């Protein structure tokens, strides 16, 4: 590995640098010369129509980017991932979230064992449990029907199910209440439980490791609330009917007091941020039902197969990954905005933040040498049209290049009234208008022609040339959600492969965890913590003083 040339010294890289130095014509010119790019620069996968025509690229740019992907053997690493090789080097693990959505007759081996039957056995166990909760057959300790489901988890054990529950709300059992508690701030659990009846509440403790302090602390407090809070059940046996666990760690689950029969298993080859289509999705499955959950898995699989089989020039995750590299490494873009024009995707970008930034926020290569190039971008964004009245100003007229993804749907959900459905065209008109305004802008001549006074012309001019991708689908269904998530999973994979980083570990979260544990006694007991720096010591002292006043 260390014999491979540094990325930036590869001829394919310097060819891209030279190409960038030559300059790309403005999108206005590119479209004027070649209107056909609107049809040519579109890739279809499953139900997704992905338009990348509004990018600062030509056929030559694409060819050069493809050469970089070939030189860095992106598809070689992809195949190693699908084969179950241990490509998560620092944790010495296979990376097989794709096995979670493999059909029952597929064979995916880890250390010589086909893991697909185990995946389907857990899916069946989840389905059985979800059906029992949904039908009322699974009752609480007092015999009352479960009406509330509270998922306790953090990171991948929260963001996935919470995001997908929001996304698929229109498909959920509306008679049930779902809440997601992640923050160790006690206010999170308080607000999630304050209006619930313990006798009707099921807690799902979701933690791959079952050692994450936030989750274990919240789960412990939830157990106290169940037993001793207002309306508490005052019987330890109640825990068996009101707590289930989703984890890879049966021992810790048992130590916590949850019956191992009530544990839904997954495996160390499922990364936390790739886990919501594993047992971690149990709350979602209860919400939408097993059939819809399986439709979502089918959606993931459509994109898995596309990523695995589509030729490079029509491979959507590859193209999106390479476009990100074009901006991050050759245009100095620091961030990437994801802007869904769907209220239901309100947590989509937050989910992608973990997927992308925990995966590719790295500064050493796979063999430990430092990288000498930019890696993962800052990912951000909120649903349109809200962002338009907040930060779009900066995207349009600020000094930073911010590539953006627009995501929209042709049809609103069925459940809306006719009047609310009619608003959908206005929503989508905004999406299309933003893409147009960002790409083509408004020239000073156009502004002058509107009679704008000369001193205001510069202020009202839009340079344009801001790149966007537009992802369009007929409607937001479970399958389409699976397709979207798999698209981004594989896009992130592509970028990590080109940058030669390990996209599957997350050592960067460890130091803060260790220090928090060390500092806590200073806050609670005023203990002397050896090795605390003077700034933190002063902050702790101020905190303790304020706490007492
Ligand atoms: O933040 C680090 C991390 O390990 C994430 O990767 C993971 O999703 C999250 O913590 C939660 O971990 P667990 O599921 O083990 O509680």
UniProtKB/TrEMBL annotation:
Pathway annotation from the record: Carbohydrate degradation; glycolysis; D-glyceraldehyde 3-phosphate and glycerone phosphate from D-glucose: step 2/4; Carbohydrate biosynthesis; gluconeogenesis
A Pfam cross-reference name: PGI
One GO term of the biological process aspect: glycolytic process
Catalytic activity, reaction form: alpha-D-glucose 6-phosphate = beta-D-fructose 6-phosphate
This protein's UniProt keywords: Cytoplasm, Gluconeogenesis, Glycolysis, Isomerase
Active-site residues, Swiss-Prot/TrEMBL: 358 (proton donor), 389, 513
InterPro entries reported in the protein's UniProt record: G6P_Isomerase, G6P_Isomerase_C, Phosphoglucose_isomerase_CS, SIS_dom_sf, SIS_PGI_1, SIS_PGI_2
Protein EC: 5.3.1.9
Principal cellular location given in the protein's record: cytoplasm
Cellular component annotations (GO), alphabetically ordered: cytosol
Annotated GO MF terms: carbohydrate derivative binding; glucose-6-phosphate isomerase activity; monosaccharide binding
Keyword match Transit peptide: no
Location(s) in or outside the cell: Cytoplasm
Entry annotated with the keyword Isomerase: yes
Highest taxon of the lineage: Bacteria
Function: Catalyzes the reversible isomerization of glucose-6-phosphate to fructose-6-phosphate.
UniProt cross-references to PANTHER family, sorted A to Z: GLUCOSE-6-PHOSPHATE ISOMERASE
Family under the similarity heading: Belongs to the GPI family.
Record protein name field: Glucose-6-phosphate isomerase
Species: Streptomyces griseorubiginosus
């Amino acid at each position: 590995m260390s014999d491979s040339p540094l990325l930036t010294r590869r001829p394919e890289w310097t060819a891209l640098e030279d190409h960038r130095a030559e300059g790309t014509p403005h999108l206005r010119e590119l479209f004027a010369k070649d209107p056909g790019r609107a049809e040519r620069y579109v890739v279809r996968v499953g139900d997704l129509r992905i338009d990348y025509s509004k990018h600062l690229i030509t056929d030559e740019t694409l060819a050069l980017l493809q050469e970089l992907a070939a030189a860095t053997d992106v598809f070689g690493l992809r195949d190693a991932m699908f084969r179950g090789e241990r490509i998560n080097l620092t944790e010495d693990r296979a990376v097989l979230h794709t096995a979670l959505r493999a059909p029952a007759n597929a064979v995916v081996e880890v250390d010589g064992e086909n893991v697909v039957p185990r995946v389907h056995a857990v899916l069946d166990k989840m389905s059985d449990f979800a059906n029992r909760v949904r039908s009322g057959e699974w009752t609480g300790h007092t015999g009352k029907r479960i009406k509330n489901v509270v998922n306790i988890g953090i990171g991948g054990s929260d963001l996935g199910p919470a995001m997908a529950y929001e996304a698929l709300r229109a498909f959920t059992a509306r008679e049930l209440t779902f809440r997601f508690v992640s923050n160790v701030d006690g206010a999170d659990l308080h607000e999630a439980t304050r209006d619930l009846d313990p006798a009707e509440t099921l807690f799902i403790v979701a933690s791959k490791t079952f050692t994450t302090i936030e989750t274990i602390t919240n789960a412990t407090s939830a157990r106290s609330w169940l037993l001793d809070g207002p309306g508490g059940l005052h019987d330890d046996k109640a825990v068996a009917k009101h707590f289930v666990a989703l984890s890879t760690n049966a021992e810790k689950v048992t130590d916590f007091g949850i019956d191992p029969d009530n544990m839904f298993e997954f495996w160390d080859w499922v990364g936390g941020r790739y886990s919501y289509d594993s047992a971690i999705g149990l709350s979602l499955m209860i919400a939408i039902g097993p059939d819809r959950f399986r439709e979502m898995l089918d959606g993931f699989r459509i994109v898995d197969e596309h990523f695995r089989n589509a030729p490079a020039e029509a491979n959507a995750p590859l193209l999106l990954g390479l476009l990100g590299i074009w901006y991050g490494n050759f245009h100095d873009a620091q961030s990437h905005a994801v802007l869904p024009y769907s209220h239901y995707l309100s947590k989509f970008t937050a989910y992608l933040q973990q997927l992308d930034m925990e995966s590719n926020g790295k500064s050493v290569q796979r063999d430990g040498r430092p990288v000498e190039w930019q890696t993962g971008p800052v990912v951000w964004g909120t649903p349109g049209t809200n962002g338009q009245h907040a930060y779009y100003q900066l995207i349009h007229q600020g000094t930073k290049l911010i590539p953006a993804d627009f995501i929209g749907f042709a049809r609103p959900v069925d459940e809306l009234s006719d009047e609310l459905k009619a608003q959908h065209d206005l929503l989508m008109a905004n999406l299309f208008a933003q893409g147009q305004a960002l790409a083509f802008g408004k020239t000073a001549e156009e502004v002058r022609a509107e009679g704008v006074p000369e001193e205001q012309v510069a202020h009202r001019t839009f340079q344009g040339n801001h790149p966007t991708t537009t992802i369009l689908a007929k409607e937001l269904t479970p399958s389409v959600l699976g397709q979207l998530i798999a698209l981004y999973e594989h896009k992130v994979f592509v970028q990590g492969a080109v940058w030669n980083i390990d996209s599957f570990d997350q050592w960067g979260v460890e130091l803060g965890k260790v220090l928090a544990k060390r500092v806590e006694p200073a806050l609670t007991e005023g203990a002397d913590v050896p090795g605390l720096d003077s700034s933190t010591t002063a902050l702790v002292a101020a905190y303790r003083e304020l706490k007492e006043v």
